[in-house]
Design brief:
It is a single chain. The protein has helices spanning about 1-15, 130; strands at about 20, 25, 30-40, 45-55, 60-65, 65, 70-75, 85-95, 100-105, 115-120. The chain is mainly beta. The strands form 2 sheets. Strands 2, 4, 5, 8, 9 and 10 form a 6-stranded mixed sheet that branches. Strands 1-3-7-6 form a 4-stranded antiparallel sheet, with no helix packed on it. The longest helix is centred in the first third of the chain and has 12 residues, at about 1-15.
Amino acid sequence: MIIAFFICYFSFAFSAVIDHQVPSRANFKSPLNIKVYTDYSQTDIVQLNLYYRNGSFGPYMMSKFNSLSSDYYSTTIPSQFINTKYIEYYILLELSSGEYVSIPENDPHDAPISLRVEESDSFDAIDFESTGLLADVNIISPQPNQNILEEDL
């Protein structure tokens, strides 16, 4: 009886896991890298896929995870797809036993991870030479405690 208890305890206590850190945000029109850790054996993994969509509507797109090592996997949501206020996604792992493991764990298709898409804080610098535009300006930057005279403006 005691042996059976320890076998059950250790099988639950040390069962394989799948883990994912949800990014804090996605940037508008920027690729989003999604990483997953799992200690399932690579021989036990049939498929590891990311399903994503814009907002809460439309069909899910699918992207296969690439192996970075025996435990870490990664895939990218393309930048041209991140063009709405929210992006939703879930991760689905299919095992050789026929079992499926997902993130989020319960009802991932109808209750996926929702991530807000933020406007980019940076701007794209204009290459004036390649566009044919000429910038005929002189930027004046005074030294500390130095005044700019009116005739310099």
